[in-house]
Write a structure and sequence with these properties.
This protein has six helices and seven strands. It is flat and about 60 Å long. It has three domains: 51 residues, no CATH class; 62 residues, Double Stranded RNA Binding Domain (2-Layer Sandwich); 68 residues, Ribosomal Protein S5, domain 2, CATH 3.30.230.10. The strands form two sheets. It has a four-stranded antiparallel sheet with strand order 1-2-3-4, with helices on both faces. The chain starts with 16 loop residues before the first helix and ends in a 14-residue tail after the last helix. With 212 residues, the chain is of the alpha+beta class. This is Small ribosomal subunit protein uS5. Keywords: Ribonucleoprotein, Ribosomal protein, RNA-binding, rRNA-binding.
Length: 212
């Protein structure tokens, strides 16, 4: 499902300087935003610069909290968005109704979109493609820890279903993995995988040395 189905570019009135620059055409690529380390505060920016973004709901759970006024119930939705080509985001929202909770989670996921470095980091392959992670990376959320290891082309995603969704929308086709902690906590599992993918840009790799 496309995340940009209902976006009306003409009616959008940007509230931030970055939003105005995007609408006026001064910034035409999301790579420029990350290169300048700018913060995305409007989901419409992502809608314009990543028009092929897709979203997938990975968890909806009823959560309850006891207060002086009684028991309060809300729905917590966790959503992954990605273009299957190097960009992915994970978002979460809690609201009284399922529909608005999913919509808010999609917005939050767009605001959290990050680039993912892809390469052929497996010594078993060395094909030079962009089908796996460039080196071993790890991410942690709560008690859940995910380690992603480069894999040869054709292996597939050797990881749990939740992480598989995040990796697929990021454009990762092959990966080995190790997981620690409570992976049955769906939102933490997804966030830990997302953190691992973000860490693909945490170091300067040899192939960055020649870049200007």
């Amino acid at each position: 499902m496309s995340s940009n189905e209902f976006l009306d570019y003409e009616e959008w009135e940007p509230l931030t300087r970055l939003g105005r620059m995007v609408k006026e055409g001064q910034i035409t690529s999301i790579d420029e935003i990350f290169a300048q380390n700018l913060k995305i505060q409007e989901a419409e920016i992502v809608d314009i610069l990543l028009p092929d973004l897709e979203d997938e709901v990975i968890d909806i759970k009823l959560v309850q909290r006891q207060s002086d006024a009684g028991r309060k119930r809300r729905f917590r939705a966790t959503v992954v968005v990605g273009n299957k080509n190097g960009y992915v985001g994970v978002g979460e929202a809690k609201l009284k109704e399922i529909g608005p909770a999913i919509k808010k989670a999609i917005t939050n996921a767009k605001l959290n979109v990050r680039p993912v470095r892809r390469a052929c980091g497996s010594w078993e392959c060395s094909c030079g493609g962009n089908h796996t992670v460039p080196y071993k990376v790890e991410g942690k959320c709560g008690s859940t820890k995910v380690v992603l290891i480069p894999a040869p082309r054709g292996l597939g995603l050797v990881v749990g279903d939740v992480a598989k969704t995040v990796l697929r929308l990021a454009g990762i086709d092959d990966v080995w993995s190790k997981t620690f902690g409570e992976t049955r906590t769906t939102n933490n599992f997804a966030k830990a995988t997302f953190e691992a993918l973000k860490n693909t840009y945490s170091v300067v790799a040899p192939f960055d040395w020649t870049k200007q």
